[in-house]
Design a protein that fits this description.
Length: 60
């Protein structure tokens, strides 16, 4: 199964509470933290909502 590596590159300070919750649900805490997640529809949807805060790359 394909996976994606998600890295938080911008702060969630002064963002909407919904965006903060999505970042926390993705397993990211502070700038520079990363998480490897399954590449499925629910993960892609969450990434789409906060894409301006993240860096995403595929893991083989």
């Amino acid at each position: 199964m394909a996976q994606v590596k998600v890295t938080l590159v911008h702060s969630v300070a002064h963002r909407e509470p919904r965006q903060r919750a999505i970042v926390k649900a993705l397993g990211l805490g502070r700038i520079g933290s990363s998480a490897i997640l399954p590449d499925n529809a629910s993960t892609r949807g969450a990434i789409f909502k906060v894409a301006h805060l993240l860096s995403v790359e595929e893991v083989k």
